[in-house]
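Weekly structure sync, notes
Attendees: PL (lead), two postdocs, one rotation student
Agenda item 3: pending single-chain targets
PL asked that the sequence for the first pending target be pasted directly into the notes so everyone works from the same version. It is reproduced below exactly as submitted, 658 residues in total.
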Amino acid sequence: MMAAAEQWRLTLDRLLWLMAALTLVVLPHAPRMPLWVIGAFLVLGLWRLAGALRGTRLPGRFARLLLQMMLVAGVYMEYGTIMGRTAGIALLITLVGMKLLETRDQRDAYIGVLLAYFLVVTNFLYSQSIPTGIYMFLVVVVTTTTLIRLVTDPSHMDARASLRLGGTMLLQAIPLMLVLFVLFPRIPGPLWGLPEDSINAVTGLSDTMSPGDISRLSQSGAVAFRVRFNGTPPPAQRLYWRGPVMWDTDGRRWQVGEPLRVPSPQLSRGDDVARYTVTLEPHNQHWLLLLDLPMELPPGSELGADLVATREERVSSRIRYPAASALDSRVESAHTSALERALDLPADSHPRARVLARQWAHTAATPEAIIGQALDHFTAGDFAYTLQPPALPGDPVDEFLFDTRRGFCEHYATAFTVLMRAAGLPARVVTGYQGGEPNPVDDYWIVRQRDAHAWAEVWLEERGWVRVDPTAAVAPSRVELGMDGALPPPRPAIIGLGEANVEQIYELMRRLRFGWDAVNNWWNQWVLGYGQARQLSFLKRLGIDARDWRQLGISLLIMVSLALGGVALWLIHRGRGRHDRARRLYDRLCRKLARRGVECRPTEGPIHLGQRAAVRLPAVRAELEGIIDEYVRLRYGHGGSLPELARRVRRFRPPPAG
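Predicted structure, written out during the meeting:
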């Protein structure tokens, strides 16, 4: 092996394959990294390439050490740390560039290949989508091909054959990969704790709300969650997915505030119950999205006094849970402290709204009449529903109610809540999602960030907390048809096509989008969502009854040991009884070489043996290479002739070593 290592050279072909593998695996990180990190990687790689092509002088050990320290310092200055997901990967990319720059021998090249494999894993820390999986599979094919190019003589196998061999090896590994995917024990929770920066960059509702927050969120088409109903889904106008409840305000900003430390209210359950399963995308918060009012909670969650379901851990990864909600239930009790909190307004805020609300309270006979006057104010007051409301630099409620009259759901919900509180009716703002889009391809609903919504709840003595959606008074299509009905996305005209043809194209695109989402949903459910519970349930149906991942691990260890033992016994038996003529001919060649002082080492393959023997026996180099090539093609490649190998070995008569 030492001799083989000494003969190994980092040829231009090997260097290019190594650079291609590393560049392909770094490429998806480019949009997430500072420009200088990717630039440093490319410059270091091109520097190494220039050294191979033009003999450009490469830096010495001291210069490399200095350069490496500068790159580490740069990452630290960029992120304030060298730990964490993004900072750690940025550091790794720069160091991979440094490794590429100093790669000279076989060991360095192997380390480069191993780094490429590791960088494949880092990409899945950002995305586990189907396109990412396909791309990374292709990167692994290129990386494996690079490994083949490093261990084989390029004169014996061209690049296309190496690429074909690499792809074949990975395709052959797919059955084993599937077996491991199904059987390898799923451990509850992540294998390691990801730092905060891995879960901060998610979109979704927040526990605070200022004018413009939800309107900005509603411009995102990202999926918030998917829902599959058991039976007929409720009408879209009844789909209010409850999120955080805002109690406190400073006049501009609303927030959840301190959780209520009071007993949960008494609920009166009706007969109209919807049962469904939610697949919730990560939003880095504790709450779960459920329909009003939840009656059966997801496992591991609890219902707060404001009827929001929460769980102890943050939702930092996609989760799936069943639930049931009553669509005609009532909240029959509320704690005094909660009602007092729902009347609070900051002093000296919203003076014009207060005057208007007091007039209503003075003239209205009932609380319902006050609510009606507020909704009439929106209906008859030339209000408009828009995603681009004017700025409200002063008092946001007064300016919206009496000046701009243009706003999104958060403007209407907060203004209505202020009016109710000013009129003496306890009220609160509820945020969440309203409606959704049915996917006809796979019979489930898609709720996107653009379906984010805010509404109000008013306490009425006879009816409890009553939902009032003032947005519906201005834009009823928002509740009945969803965001696309109220504010349809722009559909640019296509030159040369009539309106009917354009509509057909958009309908086709819509169906394709549904189909692609159904594929993604299947991927999420059965690949990414294949957790411990689903694995144990699936294996139980196969007759493997394990109670947890430890029992499953022990069972699988025993099964794998027995399987490997059986395979080993079969191979031993097969080896004893098999008449492998090619192997016998190769052994005969080895005996001939041994008589001339070239012993075949236990770990040595035919190519390395042939290279070593050719150095010792240069007079028969051509004959030896012909025999080795014939044998390798017979055993590991395509083609080759057993009679030809027998003829060559029979005629091979090496002279004594010089």
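Discussion points:
- Residues 482 and 488 are 9 Å apart (CA to CA).
- The chain has 25 helices and 20 strands.
Action: rotation student to compare against the earlier draft before next sync.
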